[in-house]
Amino acid sequence: MIWNTLTYTGWGRVRSATAQVARPERSSSLAALQAETTAPAIGMCRSYGDSCLNDGGHAVDMTRMDRLLGFDPETGILKVEAGARIGDIARRFAPVGWLPSVMPGTGFATVGGCIAHDVHGKNHHGAGSFGQHVVEISLMNDGKLQKVSQSKGMKLFRATIGGMGQTGVIVSAKLQLLPCKGDIMTVTERRIENLDHFLEALDASQSTYTVGWIDATAQGEALGRGILEEAETGYGLVPDAKPSRAVPFNAPSWALASPVVRLFNAAYFRRVPERGRTSVKPITEFFFPLDKLLEWNRLYGKRGFHQFQCVVPVSEAAVLRLMLDKIGSAGLASPLAVLKRMGPGRAGLMSFPMEGYTLAIDFPNRSGAEALIAELEEITEKAGGRVYLAKDATLDPSHLAKMYPDVTKFAKLVSSIDPDGQYETDQTRRLNIRSHA
């Protein structure tokens, strides 16, 4: 197997790594590779921070192992290699009445990445996290393949889901797909005037899929205003999906200056009529709205950006007001800010989801951004919430144990599996995860 020197980044492009990277195409070549050099796996590198980075080490790029291995149309169970992209699965199976049970905000995420970060979607309040719909995982350690599930190797199964690749290389998985009515979405949009009304609307929603866009620049009585989208799958004719376009260059710094973002957000809020509206869209345009703009991370310029995402308990929802007030006053927010209601579902020891409200906001990587994020992380910890590690590049290690109370159990297990730390990444070293063992 050929190792090539590659410099790569997470999606936020703030952190980078130079590593020796190999791209196996078969499980046999992966086994030979891992027997020779044990290394963590990477996929499409759509995690925002440093969870996919291994600077100065090795990494196994799994994107060529993307085959569909079998599907049972009676049960909806799909066996698929870890490098398969979630959007491709949705496009393939929605026309015949099945969807991945949980989908993140990009269709470029791989199955292995979705398991390793136990991703959540717009239906978490009802369906839980991705890992709750994983039937079985084929996992490789030291070139040896083993299958784990809730009934076989449960401890290892729960450490692998949300485990950031620390238990070995995910080779393939069996996924329970969700029945759907077809490959279109009926989407209702309505304006929400402030944060209190937003939380009430999210709590009251009976829709299968819900997501809120927040105007993170709004202040005063309009603090937390935005647009709520509620959606269901359906069938029928819709306009062809819009062709993808690429951002051809890094945007200049003024493109996301505070006055520009305020004007854009005000116009975006008003694009939905006061009475609301209902439309029909292809599934990909609802689930993966930014995928049609390839390399959209260039909009933040060559310095990149951070995404802060937290979840706080329902009883601590008041801290969202404090966070939004700080964000609005700082003038650092971008137009990309999302609010969702989460249910109790999580599948792994280090899984992010918990019942409450999750807020995700992008910040251009400029002066003051990391200091603001540190304040938001402090607020999150004190509220009994947690920060999403798939998005993180800044979390202080001292916050980890309170946010993730199972980290000691997790660290002991992965340290026994990988005593030499061969599967460690820049993120796990930064957070000192193994020290909790």
The CATH superfamily of the largest domain is known as FAD-linked oxidases, C-terminal domain
Percentage of helical residues? 25-40%
Within the largest sheet, what's the order of strands?
15-11-13-12-18-19-17-20
How is the CATH topology of the largest domain named? Answer: Vanillyl-alcohol Oxidase, Chain A, domain 3
Write the CATH architecture name of the largest domain. 3-Layer(aba) Sandwich
Return the structural class.
alpha+beta
Looking at the structure, what is the overall shape?
globular
The stretches of 5 or more residues where confidence is low (pLDDT under 50) are none
Tally of helical segments: 13
Instruction: Quote the beta fraction.
Output: 25-35%
CATH class of the largest domain: Alpha Beta
Measured between the Cα atoms of the first and last residue, the distance is 34 Å
Query: What is the radius of gyration computed over CA atoms, rounded to a whole number of angstroms?
Result: 21 Å
Oligomer: single chain
Q: How would a textbook summarize the main sheet?
A: 8 strands, antiparallel
